[in-house]
Amino acid sequence: MAKYVTLNEAMDAKDELGEAELRYKLLAEVFESEPKLRSQLNPAIVAAKAEINQLRALATEGDDETSDDDSGDVVPFDASRFRKSS
């Protein structure tokens, strides 16, 4: 992941994760410096944090290669496994 100095750099590079992280950083700085605006900034900070988590999950999801070839196969249900033995 590339680090950007400005939000415009991240937007020009079309790096959604970098853009969301910079937006979160800017919101957090204002949140700390302006206590009067905290109630208005809190929803935006929560949304930015959720977006970062979602983008990170999508990035790691694409990187994961399952070694198990039949990871998507459906197996038949065996009811006898769940019967109580008498």
From TrEMBL:
Bias-annotated ranges (Acidic residues): 61-72
Chain positions covered by the region annotation Disordered: 59-86
Name by which UniProt lists this protein: Terminase small subunit
Source organism (scientific name): Mycolicibacterium litorale
